[in-house]
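S.,

Sequence below, as promised.
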Amino acid sequence: GLLLFQGNTVCDDGFNDTAADAICRTMGYTDAIDWNDSEYIAFDIQDNYEIGLDEVRCGYGDWESCRYQTVTDCDHGEDVFLTCRAEETEGRFQVVDREGRNLDRSYTETGLLLYRGQTVCDDGF
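The prediction came back faster than expected:
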């Protein structure tokens, strides 16, 4: 759906899959399934909102790694629409790479262990 941040839309300038994953995780989802801008989708209500974020850039799939601007040069044709993946009922553990993408069983690289989308502390592990 139409992505809002503090009651304002989010511009697609600088937005990418890592930002989409970070935002979905912040909202309690596991990651993003897809995102796009208003070039392909439009809601009649978009003009009721100000554009609040621009140049959203995230270092990895966590909102704490994100930087953004609140001054924008966008129009509502650049609003972000985001689809997030709901948590699976099975397999609450997952291993993700540096970009926050799930690693499947065929990978041999080391990843970060998550439980229900949150990091796992190694105390007593």
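The CA atoms of residues 7 and 49 lie 7 Å apart.

Coffee later?
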